[in-house]
Amino acid sequence: MEITSFGSALFIAVVFGLYWTVARWGGRVQNGVLLLASGLFYGLADHRFLLLLVLSASTNYGIAISLGRIRSRRLRTALFYTGVGLDLGLLCWFKYMAFFRPGIEHLLHAMGFGGDHGLIAVVLPLGISFYTFQMLGYLIDVQREETEPCTDALAFLTYVLFFPKILAGPIERAQRFLPQIGQARNFDMALATDGLRQVLWGLLAKVVIADNASTFVDLVFNAPGTVTASTHLVGALLYFVQIYCDFSGYSNMAIGIAKLFGIRLMTNFNTPFFSVGVNDFWKRWHISLTTWMIDYVFTPLSFLLRDLGRAGTTIAISATFLAVGIWHGANWTFVIFGTVQSLLFLPLALTGSITRSAATTGRLPCVPPFARMAGTFVLMMLCFVLLRSATLQDAITYYRGLLGPGLLSKPEVFPTTVMFMALVFVLVEWVQRGRAHAMDLAGMRMPIWLRWGLYAVIVFVLALMNNTGSYNFIYFQF
């Protein structure tokens, strides 16, 4: 079920009504409604892997409870690594088998087993990277004794399957989510209204900007090297805008929908286009993944390698960004993306510049911060070409196209309307950058006619520029 569809809106409205109707009967009944709705939502999106998801969540639930009861350190460690192995094993099988398939096919043919080996033609379950990392983080926290194992199976399954976040995050932490559903929720009109505004902003980003930009992005990236350098530049710019509006759009919708049910999810994007360095960018982009990697990859590695000094820090940073790259999928472009990010990040970390930031509190940034913002934007825009390119060779061809003739010529692809809407979008985010999201109007003195006029304009733009093509969210493939 596409979250931007009318059917999805109707589904949410029905669940919303039922959820608050049964609120008088307590939190467990509310959780039951959410769990049934989440199972139906995921089943409609991809029914083939619903049972796998439930079994995986149930296994992690049981292992965590056992970790809380077993006192033998050796048994706890063995059980913990069994759980981690099962989670990573499923993730690697479904997500990375395609990467190794050519080698396996070659080996099987060399051993005399010819034919098409369909057993290793693996389909990627929706959301597996997101819900696997949620459960991994939960097991690690239980093993570290930083959180108590959840003994309520209904609550834990609701946490894992919660439908606004199941397909593309945020990667929510159990210790943040579970306490919120441990008791009955009371309807909060202010929170629900804020959630609807956030959903509206997410829809605008996805439907109006990302989906319309995708048409032009496909034209350029599907034929790299065949257009002018200026067109390659526009293509890279449009893709950077597209992937941000696409993913942040989903995150805002997920967070906003969760607010309708009285649940707060973590912020996943914090105006990354205004970053003043690579380190600042990763504090603002896909925050739930970045913080997960810091807590469960970088911090343990840096502690383990602390005696190596800067060499240990270098290894920890490189491994962390490599994990970030590989998290996106089984492709050499993702490996190179992670490697490049580590190379950009290392000088900042080793020289202590990682903590420096530029003030952007005024209406307009002064020249040095603006220059750093512009430089970071262009640098990350070029890096993200790797995420869009189908192969490493395509990426190389695209970069060569950027260095080719015609950089100052008129681009062959320049969607004026999309560019204008993207500019307006960025300007609004700049003005609202100090708030939870761009449509956060709490506490603002705004006449009611102006407030509803703003809503009407957004709805009109949504209706006018709704791209009728079928464009799934980019991060569904990750």
Q: Tell me the span between the first and last alpha carbons.
A: 18 Å
Proportion of residues in β-strands: under 5%
Structural class: mainly alpha
Low-confidence stretches: none
Number of helices in the DSSP assignment: 18
**Which value, in Å, is the CA radius of gyration?**
23 Å
Please estimate the helix content: 55-70%
Quaternary assembly = single chain
- Arithmetic mean pLDDT: 89
SSE order, as H and E? Answer: HHHHHHHHHHHHHHHHHH
Number of strands: 0
Largest sheet: none
CA-based shape: globular
Explained architecture:
It is a single chain. With 478 residues, the protein is mostly helical. It is built from 18 helices and no strands. Helix 8 (189-221) runs parallel beside helix 18. It is globular, with a radius of gyration of 23 Å. It starts with 5 loop residues before the first helix and ends in a 13-residue tail after the last helix. The mean pLDDT is 89.
Task: Offer a quick outline of the entry.
By secondary structure, the protein is an all-alpha fold.
Key terms for this structure?
66% helix; single chain; globular; 0% strand; mainly alpha; 18 helices; 478 residues
Strand and helix map with partners:
Elements: H1 6-21, H2 27-46, H3 50-69, H4 73-110, H5 128-143, H6 153-161, H7 174-177, H8 189-221, H9 229-260, H10 278-284, H11 287-304, H12 310-327, H13 332-351, H14 367-383, H15 385-388, H16 392-402, H17 416-431, H18 448-465
Helix pairs in contact: 1-2, 2-6, 3-4, 3-5, 3-6, 4-5, 8-9, 8-17, 8-18, 9-14, 9-16, 11-12, 12-13
